[in-house]
Amino acid sequence: MIKVLIVDDDFMVAKVHAGFVKQTPGFGVVGVAHTGAQALDAVQRLKPDLVLLDIHLPDINGLDLLQRLRQASPELDVLVISAAREMDTVRRALRGGIVHYLMKPFSAQDLRERLEHYQQAYRPLASSGSTAEQEDVNRVFGLHRPQRPLPKGCSAETLQLVEQLLQDAGADLSATEAAERLGISRVSVRRYLEYLSEEGRAEVQLRYGEVGRPERRYSWRKAG
Is Amino-acid biosynthesis one of the keywords (predicted)? Predict the structure, then answer.
């Protein structure tokens, strides 16, 4: 469950936004704050993962609060929700490291889309190990490319076997070597290996012998 803190000076608006958040699977509201001081206290006490932050607060500018929240909790993510439309405000918020900027008024679906993007793109980076794949980074910046469908006649089950073989091999393999280990035809295995290469999940190197065409050698693409 992703813990959300809502920061908005308007009590009714904050209540509506809390209802929107609760409609999104995987998210829960752990608290509501109506001033900057309340927000700083709530972040320390409740340890939220994500803050929905309004810019206009009675005791502090939301952008200044953004910096103080970052100092208080460096791992905290912030999604700005505000009626502020000035380009300078948007730029300052982006430079402050927000995950999104949503302008009021908006619908429940508008917020849900931003929350789902956060859930799919940002949270895996927070929960993964010390390295990331390029595709993980692409999701954050909106460059995610959906996986292409498998070639005709190929199955997801066999693809998984080929992936596991490459990951466990510890060295590069030819299509012939992979076919022998899996007990399926070399032609079939090569189709899976080429697919993984085109998807950026496997690397291909050419090994040149004394005669004939170079041999294609496949290995799993490591993160980092």
Answer: no
Task: Let me know if domain 2-140 sits in CATH 3.40.50.2300.
Answer: yes
Return the domain boundaries, the chain.
Answer: 2-140, 156-220
Which CATH architecture does the domain made up of 156-220 adopt? Orthogonal Bundle (1.10)
- Name the nearest CA neighbour of 108 among 19, 4, 34: 19
Q: Residue 25 and residue 80: Cα distance in Å, rounded?
A: 20
Q: Can you give the pLDDT of all 224 residues of the chain as single tens digits?
A: 999 999 999 999 999 999 999 999 999 999 999 999 999 999 999 999 999 999 999 999 999 999 999 899 999 999 999 998 899 999 999 999 999 999 988 889 999 999 988 888 777 666 555 666 666 677 666 665 556 788 888 998 999 999 999 999 989 999 999 999 999 999 999 999 999 988 878 888 888 876 778 899 999 887 54
Closest CA to 219 of 179, 181, 162: 162
Which of 103, 132, 52, 81 lies closest to 42, judged by CA? Answer: 52
Query: How far, CA to CA in Å, does 63 sit from each of 78, 94, 203, 220?
Result: 11, 10, 44, 44
How far apart are alpha carbons 94 and 66 in whole angstroms?
Answer: 11
Q: How far apart are CA 146 and CA 144, in angstroms?
A: 6
